Amino acid sequence: MVSNEKDPRRITAVLAVLVAVVALAFGLAACGGGDDGGGIEGGGGDTAAEEVKLEGKPSGDVTISNWPLYIDEETVADFEKAAGVKVKYIEDVNANEEFFAKMRPLLEQGESGGRSLFVVTDWMVAKMKELGYLQKFDKSGLPNFEKNLVDNLREPSYDPNREYSAPWQSGMTGIIVRKDLAPDVKSICDLFDPQYKGKVEMLNELRDTVPLVMKCLGIDPEGADEADWIKAIDKIKAAADSGQIRRFTGNDYAADLTSGNAVAVIGWSGDAVQLQADNPDIEWRMPTEGCILWSDNMVIPVGAPNPTAAEAWIDYVYEPKNQAQIEAYVNYVSPVKDVKEVLLKEEPEVAKNQLIFPSSSFTAKCSIQPSPSSEEEQNLNRAFNAVLNG
After folding, report:
1. Which CATH number fits domain 171-294+368-388: 1.10.540.10, 3.40.50.2300, 3.40.190.10, 3.40.50.10260?
2. What are phi and psi of 109, to 5 degrees?
């Protein structure tokens, strides 16, 4: 971890003050904002950070890595105009493990590949934080985040004081069905019904699919041990071997639902909202056993250029009106307070959707996405990958 005593931003701030003093002594004029502070290949990032602290406000460039189709078309440009920061927004996070494998060699050297901020899921935040790959936030630059983060996301076990992570969006993993083709599917256990043989798909994500199957088996995922995980994986394997499961997918289950090649899948709530807009026969259903709850989080990696601008971005999207613009497009669960009130005036259908603003009673049976220990993770990945590749 990066300690407060050695926080590079604080060192940069001191250097910036010294530079200012020297400049004044020699009658030099202060320089303007830099142009080279956030490219993927890096370069110029330290200068941008110095200028940010010297000016007392964000400036320069910032590079953000996020998942595909996870933001509206206006927010980046609106932020650039409001903050005076040039944004390089990259949609290169396609899977947590894949992104981690790409980033780890850089992070081990204290580098970020030019990225000032990226978005990963809860369990990956925990992993990166444990390895010392994340920087602490400077909370003085995050008043909106401090004020507007929803209460139920304030104290996650992996970051109880929210010093390293800010939720981007939250969501629910459950069942998406073609209600015209599989009207009776309401439980995870229904996915194993022989009448749907060859028409069922499950996610290739260990922490989404396996915990839901545990629920079918009557196992609480949040208290499960390795044997419980293996029991659920064995059930999935048997279904795959028999042809009950058509295939394991990521977001590409959308095409199979649309075509009817799949009639019921394990899938994400936000996807279903977007799919239903084009096909009213597609519907996300809360499993009778409950769903899996998760969040994707904004983090600042070690070696990040211009972390002040990254924090300005975080704080910008935690302004309810700005978040509402994002929410109306992505249709996931907002981590920001008072967004529903904004959308009731601007997008009432979005504001009244339980998949976007779920009540506590709606999610009463849901479980937080579990994260096995490092040793268990290796064994479980090996077992689950054998099913995926079998």
Report:
1. 3.40.190.10
2. -95, 10
Q: Confidence class of residue 373 from pLDDT cuts 50, 70 and 90?
A: confident
pLDDT(16) > 80: no
The rounded distance, in Å, linking the Cα atoms of 248 and 95 is: 14
- Tell me the C-alpha distance between 284 and 291, whole Å: 11
Structurally, at CATH architecture level, domain 4-164+300-318 sits in: 3-Layer(aba) Sandwich (3.40)
pLDDT (tens digit, 9 = 90+) per residue, 211-263? 999 999 999 999 999 999 999 999 999 999 999 999 999 878 989 999 999 99
Q: Which tokens sit at 127?
A: 């992993």
Q: Give the dihedral of Cα atoms 46, 52, 55, 61; nearest 10 deg.
A: 100
Number of Cβ atoms within 10 Å of the Cβ of 235: 17
CATH 3.40.190.10 range(s) for the chain read 4-164+300-318, 171-294+368-388
Q: How far apart are alpha carbons 384 and 206 in whole angstroms? A: 7
Helix ranges (H only) for the chain are 8-25, 45-55, 75-83, 96-108, 122-130, 143-148, 206-216, 226-242, 253-259, 269-278, 307-317, 320-330, 339-346, 348-351, 374-388
Give CA–CA dist 292/63, Å, rounded.
Answer: 31
Rounded CA-CA distance 384/233 in Å is 6
Other beta carbons within 10 angstroms of residue 239's beta carbon come to 18
Phi, psi of 293 (to 5 degrees): -100, 140
* Phi, psi for 70 (deg, rounded to 5): -120, 20
pLDDT digits (tens, 9 = 90+) for 30-60: 332 333 333 333 333 333 333 333 345 888 9
